[in-house]
Amino acid sequence: QLQLVESGGGLVQPGGPLRLSCAASGPNLNFYAIGWFRQAPGKEREGVSCINSSGGSTNYADSVKGRFTISRDNAKNTVYLQMNSLKPEDTAVYYCAARIPKWFVPCGLGPNDYDYWGQGTQVTVSS
User: How many CA atoms lie within 13 A of 27 on its CB side?
Assistant: First the structure.
């Protein structure tokens, strides 16, 4: 059973950076597309970014394009989300999720596409 653990959340000032990590245990992460999602209080969970199994294809929500970068190190079984120029509206619990292999199907930002979820890490952007 694939297990995912997020880390790296915390309190950061507006305009600052933060890097989230999603570490996997169990099956090798190499074959899974990975997505990052976030959920703010009173709001639905939304897709932030995703990366395919090889790392050659990525996707971003319009709200984070140009500020966030997703990457993966399959040797370390870890996916990262580098967040720059953070804004108060980025405040949320951030989750990573894995999608079982679907060859030739690009990763997407819909939560229902994903099969395994981490427990989440809180990101708070405030002065």
Answer: 11
Q: Closest by alpha carbon to 34, among 86, 82, 78, 75?
A: 78
- Condensed to tens digits (0 to 9), the pLDDT of residues 8-29 reads 999 999 999 999 999 998 888 8
Judged by DSSP in three states, 87 sits in coil
In this structure, are residues 18 and 121 in contact, taking their beta carbons and an 8 Å threshold?
Answer: no
15 contacts 30 by C-beta, under 8 angstroms: no
**């140009």: which residue's tokens?**
66
CB 55 within 8 A of CB 35: no
Length of the chain: 127
